[in-house]
Amino acid sequence: xxQTFYACSILxxxxxxxxYVVLKQPQIAFPDRLARPSxxxxxxxxxxxxxxxxxxxxEPRSGMARERIHxxxxxxxxxxxxxxxxxxxxxxMAILAGMHRGYITHEEGVKxxxxxxxxxxTADRFHGAWPHWLYPNGKVKPFSPKDDGGDIVETAYLVQGxxxxxxxxxxxxxxAQSLAREIDTLWxxxxxxxxxxxxxxxxxxxxxxxxxxxxxxxxxxxxxxxxYVLAASSPTHAIPASAYHQGWAExxxxxxxxxxxxxxxQLHHQGAPMGGPLFWxxxxxxxxxxxxxxxxxxxxxxxxxxxxxxxxxxxVKNPLHYKGYGxxxxxxxxxxxxxxxxxxxxxxxxxxxxxxxxAAVSSIVYTPKESLQAIRxxxxxPEMKHKLWGPYGFYDAFSETANWYPKRYLAxxxxxxxxxxxxxxxxxxxxxxxxxxxxxxxxxKLGFQFTALK
Length: 454
Hints:
Layout: H1 2-24, H2 39-55, E1 68-70, E2 83-84, H3 85-101, H4 106-122, E3 133-134, E4 140-141, E5 150-151, H5 152-169, H6 174-188, E6 205-206, H7 225-233, H8 241-248, E7 255-260, E8 263-267, H9 300-317, E9 334-337, E10 340-343, H10 357-361, H11 368-380, H12 382-388, E11 389-390, E12 393-394, E13 408-410, H13 411-425, H14 428-434, H15 437-446
Antiparallel strand pairs: 1-13, 2-3, 3-4, 5-6, 7-8, 9-10, 11-12
């Protein structure tokens, strides 16, 4: 009798352990091999796997997001441990989604967020702004010869995530509330107005060695709207509304309507007449809710939806006749490319035959039908899944025309997949960011109408 009991206990323990492993793996658990996976199963599989990039794939010393992970183990620039500042902001939001979904426990999430905040408190900063890249010891890694100081745009992506975490943690237990206060201190010490360089515009970079030599004033429209929103919202170092209207909007010149495939762009997309790479519709809107977001220049929900549909229809019509393009295989954005890295977008010069899964996946909030069609094709077609799916979800990019399927990931492309899927499923990150009283005040200051989800 005892032997039977022990055998059953051992088998039961083995079953529990096996179930735990299955739950932690980036796979679709279908009840029947022939069953058609539900949309929810597909989305959960992609969200869970992409989350693992920021959890299991994190740089261990800091807990921050690695700039890149190459499953093939080849790093030509010897940068396997380089930290992405903006990508870590996306990673913070991904961790919050993981806590919300139960991929990790609340305690595990708080511990990791504390590790990241402890690192950020001592890492190199330049008038409160972090650089584009950091080494695991907290020292700046230059992004280019003169870009070795503060990067106000990457800082904005990081702060967007930090503020979401602050809002999430402030209602928690004492340790979580203490961490929320530490995050608030970091937010308050970013000197947004320093990056005006005395002008009515934000400048992207400043270096202690090269000053303002990069000379890159941030004009719209591109991926940088969130930098102006946060700069206007700062309780300690805010920019005036005039910097937004004269700098970002260029005294109204940002408005330049154009129409493609029956969809209208209201704004001038810098260097991309048919709409920029799709990350322009993602990065600023991971926390900033585009629903009902309007100012005197644009309706941003409409702008993002129309940009996405133009991108989708360009791939469906496929005027350059690239192999594989179609309604279930689309999405152009900045990503790895056959010859390095490129900002893929609709257009004869900017479409290089490279599909980036993050483009379609992260657009789920705008184009659920079209995005799910691509996700379903990539995951349920055995040949495509074999080529495109790895330990952290979809690999960064591929080209059927070039027969090019690198097993490589980038933080800035994995993060939006987690966050936008979660926003589509629950609105979590939009609710958190839009609940910040400073952000609401900053948006009002700039003349925005907006929706704060409950």
